[in-house]
């Protein structure tokens, strides 16, 4: 046993009856500090990286604002100067790193000068600040989003480029700047932004053509203006075609619903009043009848009824003509409000069957009935001759 073990044993034996103070608690997370990992608070894991990210950003911002031991001077338009650290801007941008190496290779003494022209000084300052802390102020992004997009592409800062594209897509793109954003998206290799801006220009072509951006593009890049005008014409032509197709579709639907309205009228007419060779059992058909108001519709229904009465495959699905007759009878039963006094065959039986149909089929039939009744009221179809029809959709 070594001396340390002997000393501990001796002290333990001598102070067996003494009360030693409780050890201090293990170090835990700060109250307002949260970081991603396995820290625990009140028995539950603390997630997030808010404290570390905020503190880190604040540290980098202080380093940039304070200018402590800067060794690079960034010159902007109108004689503006921004001081920075070569190690930081060089690591954040490979283009700036190459410029710094080139300046050192020419034997330039510190501080090294770099020129960034063509953009406002405040935009350059926001760009350099992003290289430090990977963050930006909302107001600066709102005001300088296009210059920041250009610099992020020119100096290869993909994080800032993605941020500019997202901000433009989600609110910063306007009628006034969409033409400039479209041209810059082509120059800065931003295909998604190109698609979004092009779509906005096409959809708001009249307003966009009145902006200063369009007028400037017309002078500087007439070929691009010509392409956009051709796209607008193609879009307008395609829109006209789609509108014509939609108009034809609605017209065809209206015609079908009118035919169904007439068919329902003719069906009631045949079994209530009788027509040609078919009529109710309690009436004798006259040899010379007046011309029927329903014309070919009544004639076609008469042939269909005769086939339905004599067909051996009358079950639904067995014969296409019988299936059509079943559908017409079911449609009538859904429109009829008094099956007890109705002369149309199977009206009451089909109403009982309707109550057992699936919800999906019920929705389809209700929609069809609603459209037929609306067509009857709006489309100029004749009023149903039978009082057994509901007049409200």
UniProtKB/TrEMBL annotation:
BTB domain span: 70-140
Q: Which UniProt keywords apply?
A: Metal-binding, Ubl conjugation pathway, Zinc, Zinc-finger
Which ranges of the sequence are coiled-coil?
none
SMART domains per record: BTB, ZnF_TAZ
Give one GO biological process term. response to hormone
Q: List GO molecular-function terms, semicolon-separated.
A: calmodulin binding; zinc ion binding
Pathway listed for it is: Protein modification; protein ubiquitination
Entry superkingdom: Eukaryota
Q: Which InterPro entries match?
A: BT1/2/3/4/5, BTB/POZ_dom, SKP1/BTB/POZ_sf, TAZ_dom_sf, Znf_TAZ
PANTHER family given in the database record: BTB/POZ AND TAZ DOMAIN-CONTAINING PROTEIN 3-RELATED, BTB_POZ AND TAZ DOMAIN-CONTAINING PROTEIN 4
Protein name in the entry: BTB domain-containing protein
What organism is listed for this UniProt entry? Answer: Gossypium mustelinum
Mind giving the lineage of the organism this protein is from? Eukaryota, Viridiplantae, Streptophyta, Embryophyta, Tracheophyta
